[in-house]
Each structure stands twice: as C-alpha cells, then as structure tokens.
Amino acid sequence: MVGVKALLLDLDGTLAETEELHREAFNRAFREAGLPFSWDRPLYKALLEVTGGKERIAHFLRSFPDAPRLSEEALTRLHQRKNALYEALLREEGAPLRPGVRRLLGEAREAGLLLALVTTTSPENARAFLETSGLKGVFHLVLAGDIVPHKKPDPAIYHLARKELGLGEGEGVAVEDSRNGLLSARGAGFPVLITPGLYTADQDFSEAQGVAEHLGEPGHPARFLQGPRAGERGVVDLDYLEEVRGWWST
C-alpha cells in the first residue's frame, strides 16, 4: 500500500520546458517598451536565481547601473504585458509536457492522491498553461504567484499547501526542477524529487531525496542520478514516490 497522500509539483521546468517561452516574452515586452536590453540564455539562467517575473525584472534593473529606473507602476505594467505575451506564445507554440508527467498524474489521481500545483509563476500564466496542456481540472489545489508574501526558496507556499491539503510532515512528495524549489519544499517538511530542467541541470541538489533525468515512460526510461533507483522500467511511479518518501524519513 502506498503511504504517500499527495503529490505536489512545480510548473516551469518541471511540468514542461516553458522557460524559453518566458524569456522570449520578456524580450518582446522590453522591445515594445523601448527598453535597450535583451536577455540571452546565459543572462536569463543567472536571473532565474530570482523567483518571480516582476522580481526578476526589478533585480536586473538594480544590478545594472545604466539600466533605466522604472516606477513600481511601470514595472507592474511591464510584467503584465510580459504575461500577456507569454500566454499568446503558449497558445501559438504550446509547451509539451516533459516525459512521464501526464502518466504519473493519471496514476496518482487513480490511486486517490491529492495533487497540487505549487508555482511562483502568476495565476494567469498557470491558468493558461493548464488550459493549453490539457491539465485543467487535474489538480485539486493550485497555488501560484503572490498568494504568499515570500516566494521560493522561502517555504511559505509549501506551508500553505500543507495546510490546504491537511497534510502532516512527510505525507506528500514534491517534484521540482530547481534548487530554489528544493529548499522551499524541504523547508515545509516535504521529501523532494528533482527532475532538472534546461536551465537548472548544474545546480546543487545534494539535499534532495532523489534526482532523475525526468519522470520516465515505458520505452523511454529515465536516468536516476541520486537516491533510489527505479529498476528495469526506469520510471517514477507511485511505488517509487514511496521510496523517495522512505529516503526522507531515514
């Protein structure tokens, strides 16, 4: 019998590789606003250490002396425009789910696990992604954006998830792709499985209970880099989540 009661997942980089769509949306918003800069991949990778899109823009503007200074109102409008551009890109181009995501969510729902989406992206971005990916209505709980005063790596959003789902410490497993997500989930008492994304593969995940290339599919097995191995099938399933939980409790 699987003892895990809930599965909690991040969105960007975890459910799908959406960060390139976000980067393009930021750059289009900057061009529209006449701002004299563009974020390339190396710069964006560094900026992802700052969670939250508006916070990321503000951090960038503070870090570069020649960058224009924007009022709080202008910053909010710029971020809102970026989100609208991201939604348009998402609906035009799509963002395929990473291997194993749809399979594992289906297995978890069938087994009666609670499912939560726990993300720093805005509620609008989260809603657009769920609609375009076919995951609308799959999650019992969606927590996004500024629902808590401090974003990941602060554990506030995972503490809220525990409260809303009625979970005790260690009764759910979190799936994240970044160190900020790992620290957030661990801080609220969740064992963590990491599936590194495009921009996070070289981060430090030494505190995670497991690290897997992705969630795996039959015929498309994942490599398991840390924690329990998944046997011949090479997929993260409910039994594997229980192993991850066991590694956290020992």
Automatic annotation (TrEMBL):
Task: Please list every transmembrane segment annotated in the UniProt record, as residue ranges.
Answer: none
Classification via Gene3D superfamilies: HAD superfamily/HAD-like, Putative phosphatase, domain 2
Highest taxon of source: Bacteria
SUPFAM superfamilies referenced in this protein's UniProt entry, alphabetically: HAD-like (SSF56784)
Q: Which GO terms describe its molecular function?
A: hydrolase activity
- InterPro entries with a match to the protein in the record: CbbY-like (IPR044999), HAD-like_sf (IPR036412), HAD-SF_hydro_IA (IPR006439), HAD_sf (IPR023214), PGP-like_dom2 (IPR023198)
Stored Pfam families: Hydrolase (PF00702)
Q: Which PANTHER family match?
A: CBBY-LIKE PROTEIN (PTHR42896:SF2), XYLULOSE-1,5-BISPHOSPHATE (XUBP) PHOSPHATASE (PTHR42896)
Could you tell me what this protein is called? Haloacid dehalogenase superfamily protein, subfamily IA, variant 3 with third motif having DD or ED
